[in-house]
């Protein structure tokens, strides 16, 4: 194992050389999970930084404000990926997908999380606090960071259609 835990190695599959730069966010329906998952991410050696856009206790900002703000940071290249939590995950995904160049999805099983990256090059994962248990959410987020999109794969041309449509290609 390298002395620098952020260097690629057996436990850091897929992480960028400097570690993942992440944004997290939630609405009040996703607050408890966002807090737990953010703590996990901050303890993960594959993660370089976690920017928490809220909400925090007592803040009732609606999900579109947080979802859009997080996706804008990804689109601007300020973050590699975003993790967003609301009641179902759906509102956050719908919101983040409004930002050109961003591909967001709710995924509540391992296979879908993997394919959201490897097939669809999604930069944004959304979870529903009212849908899955916290331990499954934690597992999915751990796995999510291990998956990377292969631009030489057969999936790349399919994703490129979306970039061309949006003028981001
Ligand atoms: O997708 C929306 C989220 O689940 C949100 O947390 C709850 O939205 P609602 O209060 O409009 O049902």
Automatic annotation (TrEMBL):
Would you tell me the protein name for this molecule? D-erythrulose 4-phosphate isomerase
Coiled-coil residues are none
Q: Which GO terms describe its molecular function?
A: intramolecular oxidoreductase activity, interconverting aldoses and ketoses
Per the UniProt entry, the Enzyme Commission number(s) are 5.3.1.34
Amino-acid biosynthesis as a keyword of this entry, yes or no, is no
Choose any GO biological process term that the UniProt entry carries and state it.
carbohydrate catabolic process
Task: Please state what class of enzyme this protein is.
Answer: isomerase
């Amino acid at each position: 194992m390298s002395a620098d835990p952020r260097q690629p190695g057996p436990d850091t599959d897929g992480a960028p050389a400097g570690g993942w730069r992440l944004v997290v966010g939630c609405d009040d329906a996703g607050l408890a999970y966002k807090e737990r998952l953010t703590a996990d991410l901050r303890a993960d050696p594959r993660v370089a930084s976690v920017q928490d856009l809220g909400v925090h206790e007592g803040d009732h900002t609606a999900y579109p404000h947080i979802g859009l703000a997080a996706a804008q940071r990804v689109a601007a290249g300020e973050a590699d990926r975003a993790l967003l939590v609301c009641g179902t995950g759906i509102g956050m995904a719908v919101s983040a997908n409004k930002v050109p160049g961003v591909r967001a999805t709710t995924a509540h099983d391992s296979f879908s999380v993997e394919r959201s990256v490897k097939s669809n090059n999604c930069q944004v994962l959304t979870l529903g606090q009212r849908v899955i248990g916290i331990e499954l959410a934690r597992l999915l987020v751990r796995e999510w960071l291990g998956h990377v999109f292969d631009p030489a794969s057969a999936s790349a041309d399919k994703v490129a259609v979306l970039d061309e449509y949006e003028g981001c290609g």
